[in-house]
């Protein structure tokens, strides 16, 4: 049975992005919600694995006094690629008509290219080659991810958005854990080819599952005679600047993920240069840390989503920011790896809470007809969170590194900076109108038509 949608003509004054009132109404079985979120496991398994590869390979390929700038540079250039591709291809998919539907052709192409480019990363033995293939992976993965993110707004009715968002958070976490655990085998012997290709095949498998299982949503939007180049440029049209709540939520998401990525992007460097753990112990504590964070992330997602249905999205997100700041404080001051894991556990709780509810709030406030475009732009914050953390953390390492060895204080300073990022995330969240978009637009129309 196809997913139903209620087509509603937009009232006068409603933005053009709401020209197709495709609000899904059919209650989806849990199996379909699971299938919609499964591809996140594949995508994040790659990103989890690459996070470890970067932290191990970049220090091995550049001098110690250039480690901070080298980490920051690769993060910035890969973020630029992700930021350009994801919203653009997401917007194009909103208008795509094919035998496979709007989203699936892009998922198939991107997932296939990922396997090829991951092989290139594994075979790179120079910093420049490594960065080039990291850029290419960002191209291919975001080529698939931009359109894929449109499925929840396309298919999930309002009453199931929180649950669907919680499942997204669980799959993202499981993928990150899987990628980290698999890549640990490469850490032990310094060979990454088999682990990375294996992760690429997992992602390709989840992409095939998405293509086979997930139903298509509303019809494609009408291009209105515009060329595909004009459609691609429309992803960056300035009309989006009028969406104040959307923009503030994107900024809040960026800052939260930067705080989260400060831990994920520097915890291995913290173990190596601050706690001075040997490789064998690093491999052990990588899995313990990742497993602890993942467990608490998954445990906290569905309860957080349920609570947000009762008390509202923003109070739960404020709690996530506070818990995240507390976790980074514990991590920054940790005298031992055991204490560090306690801080990481708090970050896991914050991450699960935020992942579930932030997705739900974003789905509530965006135009459903242009979900590919808006979800692609919103995920720039996720893509940019790592680079922003790398720039700030890398600057801390660079400022405190006076010789050929990274000082123990450097990673602690990076963790401390994340505390500020979590507080700033809460500040920008205050500016977000959490009402569902259709309710807000209806209220605005009523106000516009009421007598002065």
Question: Could you characterize the architecture of this molecule?
Answer:
It is a single chain. The chain has a single domain, classed as Growth Hormone, Chain: A (Up-down Bundle). Helices cover 75% and strands 1% of the residues. The protein has a two-stranded antiparallel sheet. The longest helix is centred in the middle third of the chain and has 33 residues.
Strand order of the biggest β-sheet: 1-2
Average pLDDT level: 83
- The count of helical stretches stands at 16
CATH topology: Growth Hormone, Chain: A
Q: Span from first to last CA?
A: 48 Å
CATH class: Mainly Alpha
Show the helix and strand layout.
Elements (H helix, E strand, L loop, with lengths): L4 E2 L16 E2 L5 H32 L5 H28 L9 H20 L3 H22 L2 H5 L5 H29 L3 H21 L14 H7 L9 H31 L4 H33 L1 H21 L3 H29 L5 H8 L1 H21 L8 H21 L7 H13 L3
Antiparallel strand pairs: 1-2
Quickly list its features:
452 residues, Growth Hormone, Chain: A, disordered N terminus, 2 strands, mainly alpha, 75% helix
Write a compact overview of the structure shown.
The chain is an all-alpha fold. The protein has helices at 30-61, 67-94, 104-123, 127-148, 151-155, 161-189, 193-213, 228-234, 244-274, 279-311, 313-333, 337-365, 371-378, 380-400, 409-429, 437-449, and strands at 5-6, 23-24.
